């Protein structure tokens, strides 16, 4: 436990930083308490170093820059900054600074990195010439370019080594060990501040499991190979090819040249095409897949998404992925289908199938609130769905499985990036278009399919289609009954 003086200094420092946007000002004491609790659990040496680093900054350093410096000092906080860096609710200046965490200028000692590389490989393989400087640095790894001439070949291939930083694994494990207790602590502080008690424990535990994969480069290599096969028929997408000299702590892969998709120098037409490709490749293609499980990139910030020189989308860094089963994707479709036909019981059943229902009444209230939006003209697409899931989480009416929590986090990152690349295409527009294409591709197979079979990329059975057609006749009555119920609810709240 930190001594009282250092803990007081830490709290005073954190209270000056913009930890949450103005819209969530009531949560600032909770977030400050959480940061103090988290940092106080680190070794005295690390905390003293973090505080000293802040003290060494010039007096005129902005609070935004101080926050970025703090986040960079801890791998898990660094990742947090990347996740929220494209959140439109933050001030533009702060978002710009947080986005710098996506690809920082290397600060790691190069001889130390090369020593790690030699230890992992035994020796630098023949024909490899290392660059004189690292290319980029992330939360746990540094990227070192190289050129390789295969034995017997004359052409040189350009590649990069992704190498775990010397202290990254130790620091990440130290930080993640605090997360289970941190979740419990945050729930207790919610009660103290009279805030909604969210399911912090399970949420943090889900993200904790994901972040542990950041240091499992052997898993990333498997994900890269699987992604390369999945996108082999997508000419607009590039996934780096693996080179043969990989280890559990080093990934050797093809170097992809390009710029971040958010680069302002890209032409508007290029940016719009890239935004559509991001949605199609990272969300629509895996979602509408017929595969029993679909692989989703779980860390789609702009530092991992490049526009190549020939106009394609390069998807980098496959350490973090989420897999959704066909049943889960079918439940998503049933949720939206229920909203399109204003069938609240259908949507409630579909949402309930996602996880463990803790409070049926609160779940029904969350669905009712989402349906009020539909009756007021909101299209029940993915934006609406995430609003519904957020409402269910806020009321703590359900406990979601880990993969859905992580999928929601990936959607948040991707939505922000897409908006920063080009505000014109929306997730709903692209998903609706790709869903229609997928549906028409399936029409020739439907006459031979069993009535209840959902062995289609649209995840709709013939029975679903028949029931939906029949439900169309009930939409007017459901709309007016729901609208009347909404009005009665407003009058009841208004009182006499």
Residues in helices, as a percent range: 40-55%
Find the structural class using helix and strand composition.
alpha+beta
How many helices does DSSP assign?
20
Radius of gyration: 25 Å
Low-confidence runs:
none
Largest beta-sheet details: 5 strands, antiparallel
Distance between the termini: 56 Å
Overall pLDDT score: 87
Record field, number of beta strands: 13
What would you note in describing this structure?
This protein has 496 residues and is of the alpha+beta class. Among the domains are: 4-103 and 171-211, no CATH class; 324-494, no CATH class. The chain is 54% helix and 11% strand. It is built from 20 helices and 13 strands. Strands 1, 2, 3, 4 and 6 form a 5-stranded antiparallel sheet that branches. A hairpin with a 4-residue loop joins β9 (305-308) and β10. The model has no long low-confidence stretch (mean pLDDT 87).
Q: What attributes characterize this protein structure?
A:
5-stranded antiparallel beta sheet; 4-stranded mixed beta sheet; alpha+beta
């Amino acid at each position: 436990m930190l001594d009282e003086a250092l803990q007081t200094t830490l709290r005073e420092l954190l209270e000056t930083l913009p930890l949450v946007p103005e819209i969530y000002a009531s949560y600032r004491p909770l977030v400050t308490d959480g940061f103090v609790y988290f940092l106080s659990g680190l070794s005295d040496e690390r905390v003293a170093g973090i505080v000293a680093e802040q003290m060494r900054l010039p007096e005129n350093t902005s609070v935004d820059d101080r926050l970025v410096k703090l986040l960079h000092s801890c791998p898990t906080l660094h990742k947090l900054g990347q996740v929220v860096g494209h959140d439109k609710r933050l001030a533009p200046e702060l978002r710009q600074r947080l986005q710098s965490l996506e690809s920082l200028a290397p600060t790691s000692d190069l001889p130390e990195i090369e020593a790690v590389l030699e230890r992992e490989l035994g020796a630098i393989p023949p024909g490899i010439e290392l660059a004189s400087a690292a290319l980029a640095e992330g939360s746990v790894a540094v990227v070192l370019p190289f050129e390789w001439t295969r034995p017997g070949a004359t052409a040189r291939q350009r590649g990069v080594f992704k190498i775990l930083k010397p202290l990254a694994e130790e620091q990440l494990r130290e930080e993640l060990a605090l997360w289970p207790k941190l979740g419990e602590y945050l729930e207790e502080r919610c009660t103290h501040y009279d805030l909604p008690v969210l399911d912090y424990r399970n949420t943090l535990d889900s993200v904790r499991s994901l972040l542990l994969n950041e240091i499992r480069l052997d898993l990333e290599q498997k994900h890269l190979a699987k992604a390369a096969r999945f996108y082999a028929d997508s000419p607009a997408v590039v996934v780096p090819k693996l080179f043969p000299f990989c280890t559990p702590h080093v990934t050797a892969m093809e170097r992809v040249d390009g710029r971040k998709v958010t680069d302002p120098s890209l032409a508007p037409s290029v940016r719009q095409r890239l935004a559509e490709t991001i949605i199609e490749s990272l969300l629509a293609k895996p979602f509408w897949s017929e595969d029993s499980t679909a692989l989703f990139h779980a860390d789609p910030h702009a530092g991992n998404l490049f526009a190549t020189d020939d106009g394609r989308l390069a998807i980098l860094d496959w350490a973090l992925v989420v897999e959704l089963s066909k049943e889960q994707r079918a439940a998503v479709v049933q949720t939206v289908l229920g909203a399109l036909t204003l069938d609240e019981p259908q949507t409630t059943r579909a949402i309930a199938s996602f996880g463990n229902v803790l409070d049926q009444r609160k779940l029904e209230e969350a669905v009712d609130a989402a349906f009020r939006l539909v009756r007021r003209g909101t299209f029940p697409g993915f934006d609406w769905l995430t609003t519904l899931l957020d409402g269910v989480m806020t009321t703590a009416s359900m406990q979601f499985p880990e993969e859905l929590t992580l999928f929601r986090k990936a959607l948040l990152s991707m939505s922000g990036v897409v908006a920063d690349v080009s505000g014109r295409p929306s997730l709903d527009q692209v998903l609706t278009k790709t869903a229609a294409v997928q549906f028409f591709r399936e029409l020739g197979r439907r006459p031979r399919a069993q009535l209840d079979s959902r062995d289609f990329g649209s995840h709709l059975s013939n029975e679903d289609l028949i029931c939906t057609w029949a439900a169309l006749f009930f939409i007017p009555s459901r709309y007016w009954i729901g609208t009347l119920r909404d009005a009665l609810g407003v009058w009841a709240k208004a009182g006499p």
